[in-house]
Amino acid sequence: MGLFRKRNPPDVPKKQQLMYSAPRHSGKNRLSAQPDIAETELYRRLRFAVPIIDAAIHKIIRLTGDFRLVCSDSSMQKSLDCFVKNVPVGAAMRSLQSFADVYLDSLITYGNALGEMCIDPKTRTLAALVCGDPSQVIVTPARTAGECRFFYPPENEDSEPVPLAHPERILFTAMSPPAGEIRGVSILRGLPALSDILLRIYECIGQNYDRCGNVRYAVVYKPSNDPSDRAYAGERAKTIAREWSNGMAAAAAGEVRDFVCAGDVEIKVIGAENQLLATEVPVRQLLEQIIAKLSIPPFLLGLNWSSTERMSSQQADILTSELEYYRRLLSPVLCRIGETFLGLSGSDASVNIEWSNISLKDETELAQARLWNAQAEEIERNAERMA
Q: Who's near 209: CB < 8 A, 6+ residues apart?
């Protein structure tokens, strides 16, 4: 009769896709995977992307301290002091100390520092000092030992480098150049790869907080077996959604509302069961590598890592030796500037540089040493009188 005729099963598409992929945000802070970026631009981006590296370099520059140029001719000391205090540097700075800070910043960041002494053509005096980008000048060895030649890069492949008009006015310093090389090595070499990993960790932390940190709720209404509940399930779900939205808006305005609903309603926090990964250990390991390369004690950067008093003292001694190294690189350049100023002023006097003590701790130790020496001399004098 056909009463129990079998129904044909629904047609199933042959090529039915059962899995889909959801796109993720791609990383924007990739430092080590960009071979097309010049090395100077890479270090500039590195300081911009990792604040602790930029802070450490500024700390080194400030801790290097100030100095004083001493002229062998006492009659020219006043003029030399006025020049050191008031010489224009670039377009907006003055004093030889400002030039030394910018020069040292370039030396640490790029491994090379470039400056120029600007001579006034009318008065034939040293009128200003300028710091330049060392990557914009080609440096080659000269025929005379201990001298360099400077060229502008060629405009195209067919042209040749153009030599600078006054190479005797150029100031150039290289930090730790490899054997057989003229250009130095930046202190930041080796840090882009570590910083890339560090930035990826911070990026993942931000993405996890976007997903789980901003609390979202899943409100599920389960109608009972009553036909009336199932018939009006859609309308009740819309009512629940509307009231829930009004309650969240009221909470944002500072008004507290309770959510009351009849029926089986379940409220869950999306992502509450997933814990965020602990990042303290890997982040600290990366920061330890970065700080070890920069030779800065962690407490100077606000990192409250466990350290003893003796360890802090040893770290301060290591930093002092690093600062003395930077001073040795700057001293010939600063003395050359002072002697050039004196030579253009008609004096053949020489210039020596006196650096201030690096820190208050050094001042305290020197004062304590002077006190002990004075006490020892007093004891010796009393012993001689008694004899």
A: 276
**DSSP summary character for residue 297:** -
User: CA-to-CA distance for 247 and 245, rounded, in angstroms?
Assistant: 5
- Name 155's Cβ contacts closer than 8 Å, sequence gap at least 6: none
Q: Where are the beta strands (DSSP E) in 17-82?
A: 67-71
Strand-pair category, 264-269 with 351-355: unpaired
Contacts of 67 (CB under 8 A, 6+ apart): 97, 100, 334, 353, 354, 355, 356
Which are the contacts of 170, defined by CB distance < 8 A and separation ≥ 6? 114, 115, 116, 150, 164
| Phi, psi (deg, nearest 5) at residue 174 | -115, 140
Nearest to 98 by CA among 53, 136, 62, 44: 62
92-120 pLDDT, tens digit per residue, is: 899 999 999 999 999 999 999 999 999 98
Query: Six-digit token pair at 256?
Result: 């507290």
Q: Cα(380)–Cα(374) distance, rounded to whole angstroms?
A: 10
Alpha carbon distance 142, 123 (integer Å):
30
Query: How far apart are the C-alpha atoms of 381 and 387, rounded to whole Å?
Result: 10
Element (H, E) at 116: strand 112-119
Q: Report the predicted TM-score, pTM, of the whole model to 2 decimal places.
A: 0.72
Give the Cα separation of 56 and 14 in Å (integer): 63
Helix (H) or strand (E) holding 66: none
Would you call 50 exposed, middle or buried from its count of C-beta atoms within 10 A (0-12, 13-18, 19+)?
A: buried
State pLDDT tens for residues 162-221: 888 888 899 999 998 888 888 889 988 888 888 888 888 888 888 777 776 667 777 887
